[in-house]
Structure to design on (107 residues):
């Protein structure tokens, strides 16, 4: 499912339900957002993402192929908080494209 957010000037938030890691427990909900595309995964980029992940509340940044993706999970038990979780995620990731764009553009 795709979600539009007024917090984000471009792109969409993707919402998906995934099985728990042991495949027998409850589902988890994942929200994700493509922060950058067409990046070259380098050690420097991984180091920058690790630094940002240490301070990022509510999301983590990963490299998926040639994209930088922000994502966050919510367990099924907390389903009633899903809307609040998605809105907080949108606020958290809204500042990331300029930061990462500046880092990526300076390479």
């Amino acid at each position: 499912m795709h979600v539009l957010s007024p917090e984000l000037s471009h792109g969409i938030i993707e919402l998906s339900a995934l099985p728990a890691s042991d495949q027998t427990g409850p589902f988890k909900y994942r929200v994700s957002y493509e922060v950058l595309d067409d990046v070259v995964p380098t050690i420097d980029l991984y180091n920058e993402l690790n630094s940002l992940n240490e301070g990022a509340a509510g999301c983590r940044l990963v490299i998926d192929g040639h994209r930088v993706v922000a994502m966050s999970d919510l367990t099924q038990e907390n389903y009633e908080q899903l809307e609040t979780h998605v809105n907080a995620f949108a606020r958290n990731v809204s500042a990331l494209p300029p930061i990462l764009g500046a880092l990526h553009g300076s390479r």
User: Anything to note?
Assistant: The chain has one domain: 2-105.
